[in-house]
Amino acid sequence: MRERLTNWAGNIVFGAERLHRPRSAGEVQEIVAAAGRLRVLGSGHSFNRLADTDGDLLSLADLPRTVEIGPDRTSARVDGGIRYGELAARLATEGLAVHNLASLPHISVVGAVATATHGSGERNGNLATAVSGLEVVRADGELVTLTRGDADFPGAVVGLGALGVVTALTLDVVPAFELRQYVYDDLPGSAVRDHLDDILADGYSVSLFTGWTGPGVDMVWLKRHDPMPAGDWFGARPADGPRHPVPGMPTVNCTEQGGVPGPWHARLPHFRMEFTPSSGEELQSEWHVPREQGRAAIEAVGALRERVAAVLQVCEIRTIAADDLWLSPNYQRDSLALHFTWIADTEAVLPVVAELDEALAPLNARPHWGKIFTTDPAALREAYPRFGDFAELVQRFDPSGTFRNEWLENLLG
Length: 413
Hints:
It comes from Actinoplanes aureus. By secondary structure, the chain is of the alpha+beta class. The chain is built from eleven helices and 19 strands. β7 and β8 form a beta hairpin.
């Protein structure tokens, strides 16, 4: 590589000397079989060194775009380089949808799945839960297929890129649906304290946004099938115009609000499909706690309010349903997630991240794999009941350590 390659936020400079851009699964197999150390680079939306390597990087962006609808129209096989915005456009023409989307539609499907990235909704699993099959090139170059029901499948889906190169996924799809998006301002702290469960259950997807400058919530973004009655909602006022999650930022790039009905892919993300951010002046962290610990987690962050607010752009609070994927932060527990979008100042942010790590640890918090956290690797291994099985699976798929890097070595111990 002649030019310095960074992640989307610019806080990680990759150490690889070569970047491969294969155009077929066969080329991927050839590259992997000849590789020493190799990691897959998706859309670069991880904020730590998960994708870094001192070997080679491999991008699947040049694979032919593939969206093959199954005969019964309940599944779609997609290529390993497709992004959610591209997938949504293809599915929409077929009258189909995926069950949920992240707030930003420009991330790669495989990368989001590998890190258990999610949207919101107490009955909605993270994006990885839609996977029913994956095709993986192992370290020896062999292409293997795993499907839901196979013994290794729940360990391979949220795989952190440790098992191999995922060249294709099969996803569950559902009939296309419409949603309405409402925004409310200034949800009182008393409502959060006394009615948190009711608030988070009052939509297909619910997001609470706060700058932690006071006890209340600055904004609520509510995505629903049915129209909302006029007037206040749990003491919050209907927004008098479009909003951006970060106060003061232009709203033109956000999805339509005001309760106007629209297709799923134009309401579930917070940002429009046609808006593609080229870089992010931000850092991100996120912790998932068991749903029953949600109020305690909010109180724990509130105790650090001044420290957090000083380096914060915005915090988003969401819910995610439980699943059975070994390395999912939502493994066997409904979860409440606290997502922090920080200012782009690593030196100022890291001490606050460490304080939050410590404050949330007693609540059995699990950090998002692709964000910034300081949790000790031994504590992370302890947080996942099937971590030992995952480590054994990695050893079977990659005995030579082709897909390992320093980040994974520390995690695996």
